[in-house]
Amino acid sequence: MEISPVEFYDKVRPYKDVIPSQIYEEIIEFHYKKILPKKITSRPRLGKLGSTIIKPKLVNVISNWIDKNDSAVLSSNNKYKFNLIYLKSRDGFDYTTFNNKLKGQGPFVILIKVRSNKIYGGYNPIGYDGRCQWVTSSASFIFSFENDQDIQNMEIGRVIFAKKAVYEHCNAFFNFGSHLFVKEQDLFLGNPGHYDNIFTNVEISLPIEEIEVFSVIKK
């Protein structure tokens, strides 16, 4: 479950004859239809993301960013468990479903893959509670990766105006300080001054391919 569909096809499928048929069919269903297995009890290991957007080595990067450990961002960090709570291709692309999936789940990390294969994201330590207002946070951040395993050109922008760190929409998707937000079907990047500017000086929109949201639980 922690590898990509391509890796599954190339590296696991050839050995299907030695895998119990029930397990194989449930994993096929997971990779092609995003349906979690019913009978498989194993889950992604602590500190790992069951993500189809990024590779596991970027999990340490995000975990260290959460710990504000930017100077040793590539060091091992298994302090957190990440649970997938929303997947665009599985749950649909409407804000009501999105907000219902996030409500009451606590802190979360969001990953957005756009058509260029670049990846954007953000960390919300407050969580979502449907407050329909600006929410103060001094620990939230936004980030980008050039691709699913980029460790050379990754960027992080920490919040600099805590009172407008996150806007909790009642009738829209997430909004990280108007720097990173969804409008209609696209991802918008801006520079209103609420986070370190790592994106652009003018607002741009990018078509979205996939969105994943993980609740973050400290061990």
Automatic annotation (TrEMBL):
PROSITE patterns: TLDC. It comes from the Eukaryota. InterPro entries: TLDc_dom. Residues 52-217 form the TLDc domain. It holds the Pfam family TLD. This is 8839_t:CDS:1. The lineage of its organism: Eukaryota, Fungi, Fungi incertae sedis, Mucoromycota, Glomeromycotina.
